[in-house]
Specification:
α1 runs antiparallel to α2 and α5 packs parallel to α6. The chain is of the alpha+beta class and 262 residues long.
Length: 262
Amino acid sequence: MASANLNIMIKAARKAGRALVKDFREVENLQVSVKGAGDFVSRADREAERIIKEDLRTARPNYGWLGEETGAEPGEDPTRRWIVDPLDGTTNFLHGLPHWAVSIALEHKGEIVAAVVFDAAKDELFIAEKGSGAFMNDQRLRVSGRRQMIESIFATGIPFAGRGPLPATIQDLARLMPLTAGVRRFGAASLDLAYVAAGRYEGYWERGLNPWDVAAGILLVREAGGFVEGIRDDDDPLESGRLICANAQIFESFAKVIRARD
């Protein structure tokens, strides 16, 4: 049984997801005008955050808030805050690619205790609570059981448009790809983490992330039996924005390759 807080999060994610799906159907009609499509998606993103914020703040008015669009707002309860990305995978959404998600996490005393990642385009709802496991559409999630790097698929983000640590990522890929079955770059960090939790990938790493990109996904992976650490092993991945995760069998070998540079 989900807690009251998790049920509130699920309701808000589904409500925002339904609105985004309607907007997503309109994107194709706007591709003739790049500016028009871009402006439309920006509005859709802001509206999704408004919907989530209204629902969460109505239910828990004393909790703090950290949202991609509206930033940080303290709450009367300094120990709890919502961490929200209303549309993770905005570029995919803009281009009509059905790979994006609503991500909502609840933080308590610096630790993520509840998580929702909703892939509305595919109707896949990933949820987790600390100590209670991770689920996708009521099916229990477990990380992959693969034990060999050469059998494993990994995911990452590749910096674009002059943003982020591109040379480091290129070096990572050069070291990693000869040792694996492949690397995927799908463009939505919350779903990359959800897919590790679901055993679809064996591992994921990335630098230059924001808390709202990964807060929910971190708990999903841990509750599905995976390991999550900073790329530098003394980092807090939520604070540093540098993250590596994998199943228990692969983690040490995978981390050694990625950390060779850091």
